[in-house]
Write a structure and sequence with these properties.
single chain; 255 residues; 5 helices; rod-shaped
Length: 255
């Protein structure tokens, strides 16, 4: 009957084997998932800028409307003052009304100037929107192409991935929380995703540093969990080399 430690090592090694098979599937996808995500984020950024430009144009159009309303109001006042000017009683009243007419005329000129400046800003924003829409169109085309490639690759391995994920879920339940936390930590720090390895040809299967014979004997006993002193990976066992027996030479018959 296997010892509790041996059972733990079998469970964690099985989990590693499943994760390695999943890693192989993800490796085929390469950088496509990250590229798709980057393009999606980039497009969201462009769409946010477009929304801001449109909001700026809308605010500027409201500003133009206010200036046009102000011009209409000044024109009404000018007409009113012109009518009053026809019925003044003295020069003092005439001069006061003339000043009001000049003031309203100035208000009209200022409003017209601000309208012209606002229209220039709108034209500039519309140019920015046009340029941004072209960039957005190109990025969307890139995204559609990348997503198409990724979807094709994913569909080819979808069944296998789903099967392995179910197996992983079951395998993970057989590993105690403390050990699986250590496993995840080691795995995240390992470039090749290996947290549990075997000793092969007298060396760690992860970093390939030599494991002393005494250490190998302890690993074989499976009485405690042993990690590589160089890389920290869990050493789940020692893989025995298969030594092939030399093929016996055929004796030549005497002539």
């Amino acid at each position: 009957m296997e010892s509790p430690v041996a059972q733990k090592l079998e469970a964690i090694l099985n989990l590693q084997n499943i994760d390695s098979r999943l890693d192989a599937i993800f490796k085929v996808r390469g950088a496509l998932p990250e590229e798709v995500q980057d393009l999606e984020d980039e497009i969201i950024g462009y769409e946010t800028r477009l929304s801001k430009f449109n909001s700026d144009i809308s605010a500027t159009e409201d500003e133009i409307k206010k200036h046009k309303d102000a011009i209409k109001e000044s024109e009404k006042l000018i007409k009113k003052y012109q009518d009053q000017q026809m019925n003044v009683r003295n020069n003092r009243e005439y001069d006061a009304i003339t000043k009001e007419l000049e003031l309203q005329d100035l208000e009209i000129q200022v409003s017209k100037k601000k309208i012209a400046e606002a229209q220039i800003r709108i034209e500039e924003k519309q140019k920015d929107i046009s340029d941004l829409n072209e960039i957005l169109k190109d990025r969307q085309n890139d995204l559609d192409q990348k997503k198409g490639e990724l979807d094709t690759i994913v569909s080819e391995s979808e069944t296998e991935e789903k099967k392995l994920r179910n197996e992983r879920e079951k395998a993970a339940k057989k590993v105690e929380d403390r050990l699986i936390k250590s496993y995840d930590k080691i795995r995240n720090n390992a470039k090749n995703g290996l947290a549990v390895v075997l000793v092969k040809r007298g060396a760690c299967g992860g970093c390939f540093n030599i494991v002393p014979p005494q250490r190998q004997a302890e690993i074989r006993e499976r009485k405690k969990i042993i990690v590589c002193e160089h890389c920290g990976r869990i050493l789940a066992g020692v893989e025995d080399e298969i030594v092939e027996e030399p093929t016996p030479k055929r004796k030549r018959s005497k002539a």
